Amino acid sequence: MPTTLENWNPGKAENRHPEMTYEEKEKLFLEVKEDPRYEDFLYGCYECGICVSSCPSARFYDYSPRVIAQAMAREDVERIYDIISEDIWNCAQCFSCVRCPRGNNPGGLVTLLREVAVRNGLQETRDVLQGYSRVIYKVMLKGNQVSPDMLQPDFFPDWGPWVAQFSANMPVWRKAIPVDTLRGVTDAAWRTERKTLLELYTIWFETGNMDIIKEIDEGLYDLLAEVMQEELEDQ
Amino acid sequence: MTTTVEEILERKSHAVIRDPEVAPIVDLREELFELEARGEVIVQRVPENHVEVTTKFGRKKKIPIDHTWHHKSCGQCGHIPGYTSSIFWLHRQFDLDYLDPKDQTSCTGWNYYASGASNATAQAAVMSRNFAAAYETGYFPMIHCGTSYGHYKEVREQLIHHKGLRDEVRRVLDKMGKPLVIPEELVHYSEWIHVMRKRIAEKQTVDMSAITATVHPACHYYKIVVEDAIYDPEIYGGQRMATVTATLQALGMNVADYSTWYDCCGFGFRHILVQRDFTRSFANLRKIEVMKNEVNPDVTVTHDTGCVTTLDKSQFAAKAHDRKVGIPVLSDAQVSALAMGAHPFRVVQMHWHSTDWRPFMDKLGVDWQKYWDEFQGDLELIRSGQKAGITWEDADKPVVNVA
Ligand code: SF4
Ligand code: SF4
Question: Given this model, what pLDDT does residue A39 score?
């Protein structure tokens, strides 16, 4: 059957989110499309499923990089909104899907969709990121994001009894590391100069990163902004 | 809508031409040098002392041997410090000049991949600030973390291709008086180990020929900007990355294949923190159990922070459910240091690992108890205030010799 204007987009999604108008959903999609990286990440879709076969998230969730690429290639605004409000948070960002013979990067598309979801402060996004604030806080104030003092049995009970040992021995074990920037440091991954941290704060403010945080977690924004502003003023 | 249906159909109709005889040879450096000629960026050159290797589609990549600026990793330094100390220890054993900077931030890639709470300009500015800091010292960046490495490859490509992004990043860097510097090559520490593997084997004091190992190749090393990973026809016929596997073979290990080698470890960025059921299930069901069932290795070796953490820490819960698990997880840096007789605790810091590593050490013939007792002595001195900490002076000397 030849492809015509009427049949080119079979299976177009129904409106599952009537609380939002089509125009609002379309605006979100256009934001994704305007990103200069969009053209690098999407070339169409053969619907071959190669990306799905290598996708870890597709094994454990009702999730498919093929559906993402396909919905975007077809510009199916309703389905893209379904994806942006839920699916994107299942992606493991492993980029196994770049095996795509069409040259797509579905993981990259997810990155763009996440950025738009965050920038627009979608409620689902705020909910999903609640548990993540601690890490955002850490990276912004310490310059690196995995500190040894996070290794506490109540955060990682499923990591076994060793976590209790790491935590109990932390101060002395950290002193017993020969690397100069690590020795004795427990609240950051490595020792970072104050000047370097101030430069990082400058980047967050100048690139609008702080406004993004404000969209998703106002409390976190206030906390970070206060500390950073003070530090920058002291400079 | 700005795109018409006809435009979409037109776009979908283009076939991708694939000619196996003409593999794509992508060399971003050509565009990079053009940008430099136009005065847009500074390109930091790989130092004189380097080795050339072949990448996926045949490009020659320069791997510096010394005069390197070590871009550390949040996860390594935070949770697996023996990973970092092994990398530095190896440099020290060969008397190679390196810098362990404090003027470095995280690439912030973990936060970005996990939460989307950042943007392209911020990510590019963080990378460029770090690279400018390296450039100011004259040392060439060597990246410890697989995620930082993959992320920087992605950002570098974006910076080269999008003028608007470059202009924005330059505006931000101007505020700190830093130039826009892009290194000629992005180099991962495991590539340094790869080119040093024969020299490492020459100094080997621990026989590893009784060991069967599996390799978990880190996704962000070879899946992001695929053309920038090392391949070698001698390793899996050039059909898989050569890094790590070639190192273990040079150390005399038997590297065994398993069917889910292409799968990720299950880290998932946000998953490992807030949806750990996914991470745990994937790590155990798709990786550890498959390795165990198919080849029953003594150790599995990888070259990224997130992979070591995920594969190592996920096994405890699975053991509680009587799953077939129990494979120690190390990085190629740690294995290389062990091979050259590094102290298992002062340098390799085995005690930060969760899955039982003792059977592996026993099989190597390393009397780990002796070194553990010695390390307990160090800790006592630190506790009692007689010693401020372990220094390179305490840790430099190779101590294990069971060849
Ligand atoms: S990046 Fe996301 S979509 Fe792609 S394979 Fe990994 S989990 Fe799946
Ligand atoms: S691999 Fe590429 S072409 Fe095939 S279904 Fe996935 S996105 Fe579409």
Answer: 87
C-alpha neighbours within 13 Å on the C-beta side of residue B39: 0
Q: What ipTM, to 2 d.p.?
A: 0.93
Residues of A in contact with B112 (CB under 8 A): 111
B68-71 and B140-143 beta bridge pairing:
parallel
Integer Cα distance of A104 and A100 in angstroms: 6
Give pLDDT tens digits for A162-206.
999 999 999 999 999 999 999 999 999 999 999 999 999 999 999
Q: Return the residue in B70, B136, B270 with the most chain A beta carbons within 10 A, the one to mutate for interface testing.
A: B270
> B204 alpha carbon to ligand 1 midpoint, in Å?
39
How far does B297 lie from chain A, in Å, by closest CA? 22
Name the residue among B296, B309, B60, B82 with its Cα closest to residue A182: B82
Q: What residues of B are in contact with residue A212 (Cβ under 8 Å)?
A: 117-119
Q: CB B121 to CB A207 under 8 A?
A: yes
Q: How many Å apart are CA A202 and CA A199, to the nearest integer? A: 5
> For the segment A86-123, what is each residue's pLDDT rounded down to a tens digit?
999 999 999 999 999 998 999 999 999 999 999 999 99
For A154, B82, B174, B349, B400, the CA distances from B379, given in Å and listed in that order, are: 25, 16, 46, 13, 20
Measured between CA atoms, the residue of chain B closest to residue A77 is B1
Is it the case that residue B17 has pLDDT exceeding 90? no
Cα distance between residue A104 and residue B214, in whole Å: 30
Residue A85 touches partner B, C-beta closer than 8 Å:
no
Collapsing DSSP to helix, strand or coil, B172 comes out as helix
- Say yes or no: A184 contacts chain B, CB-CB below 8 A: yes
Q: Which residue do the tokens 């990448």 mark?
A: B55
Q: How confident is the model at residue A134 (pLDDT cuts 50, 70, 90)?
A: confident
